[in-house]
Amino acid sequence: MHPALGIGLVLAVLGLVMAAARTAGRRWRWEPELQRKAVHIGMGATVLSFPWLFSSPVPVFVLAGLAVAALLCARRVPFLRRGAVSALYGIERDSHGELYFSVSVALVFWLSGGDPVSYGVPVLILTLADAAGALIGVRYGKLAYTTLSGTKSAEGSVTCFTVSFFAAHVPLLLATGLGRAESLLIALCLAALCMLVEAVATRGIDNLVVPLGAWFLLVRLSALDVVTLAGRAALLVALLATVLALRKYSSLEGGALLGSVLLAYGCFALGGAVFLAVIAILFACHLIAVGAIRRIFPPRHNLNAVLCLAATSLPWLILLDNGKLPRDQSLYGFTASVATHIAIFNLNTVRVLLPGLSRPQCLIRCPLKALLCFVPVLLFPPGAFGVAVAMAGVIFVLCATALAVFDAVVPGLADAPRMDAVRRWILQGSISLAAAAAAAGTAGWLAHSPGR
Question: Which SS3 state, helix, strand or coil, does residue 147 take?
Fold first, then answer.
């Protein structure tokens, strides 16, 4: 089929989908969420045909550009907003999901090379799991948890997991050369991770992150043997069970707890057990601090805390995974980042529990405590004991310096709530990232210095 004819056919079908959802909504009085998801499913079913309609990603990007332009116009022109696309805008909420949908489909088609399975599985998950989870959550959700955009339900998340599993398992089993066990385990891991991403995503960005993440995970998981896949599935179950069992001892909100599972799994998948151990130590320190300070006031942390940690620690794992940074150097940068976060978190805890400590005492005690938590990790690299000892001192100095800078900008617990939350996390993340970069750079210099 000629690309121009394919583009015209897809646009005509999408127009019919929106008109049908609008008509059905008026005739049978569908609630706005149902109308929106009907369009979502219709669009997803339409774009699933792309591998058979187009042999090049160019027409798909053209379609995505046309769709984004039309939807942006509809957002800003009331007449268009009340027209055929009204089924998308019956709900007044801050979401750009329909824009992300078009972009993600084009990107996944390009990344997958138009392969029906590696393209179709992410789009199926985007189409069916997201819609089913939202509808079940709205209608039947009772067990709610807090996210940055409001609340979501456990029922919706379980539905998202179930539909994602079948959306992955059936195509992998029927349309690939993977064995039954491999197909089952890949689908389990993929469904669990997509559920976690959907649970923490806000403002419709799950329509972008879920399909791209599903494609990336599908490619990575398909290359693993059955024993490794079984280990990954068991790790996911263990992480989720641990976090849920300890949730009452944590200050993290529901979305942040699920985000911490995602972060921990990502650290293991990209770096291995030692990087997961660093995150486990951080979580243990968090539980101990919350238990000590809860008697005085109950702290609360939302997903911003986890996002800040991820933004400053994952870059070192990505560099390691891509072969851009040696393992030891990546580990020191990663550990310095997490240690700096612990020192900053611990500062206000110490000031509440030990109000008699002076500022210099706090600025020494908190980084020293953070450093001692990671001594086993810092001494982990074999054959480099001298570098490890030197790096322990470097990380202590960097943590103390970072803490002093943070304390100068946010001088005390009483001032922290008055600072805009996003600005506060950006500040903490920037300071932590700078300390990590200095640690990684120093580790590289020590490893290549004369005499070593």
Answer: strand
Region 57-81: mean pLDDT is: 79
Instruction: Using the structure block, give the residue that is written with the tokens 């240690």.
Output: 339
Residues 6+ apart with CB under 8 A from 5: none
Is the pLDDT at 22 greater than 80, yes or no?
no
Going through 21-141 in order, the beta strands assigned E by DSSP cover none
Average the pLDDT over 329-355 and give the result.
88
| Longest CA pairwise span in the chain (Å) | 81
Kind and range of the H or E run holding 160: helix 154-175
Cα–Cα distance between 334 and 268 in angstroms, integer? 13
**Of all helices (H) and strands (E), which one includes residue 452?**
none
The DSSP line for 299-356 is: --B-HHHHHHHHHHHHHHHHHHHTTSS-HHHHHHHHHHHHHHHHHHHHHHHHHHH-TT
Contact (Cβ atoms closer than 8 angstroms) between residue 195 and residue 167 = no
| E strand or H helix at 151 | strand 150-153
The CA-atom distances, in angstroms, between 81 and each of 11, 14, 20, 39, 390 are: 18, 16, 16, 15, 63
Q: Which residues contact 288 (CB under 8 A, 6 or more apart)?
A: none
Q: pLDDT tens digits, residue range 211-235?
A: 999 999 999 999 999 999 999 999 9
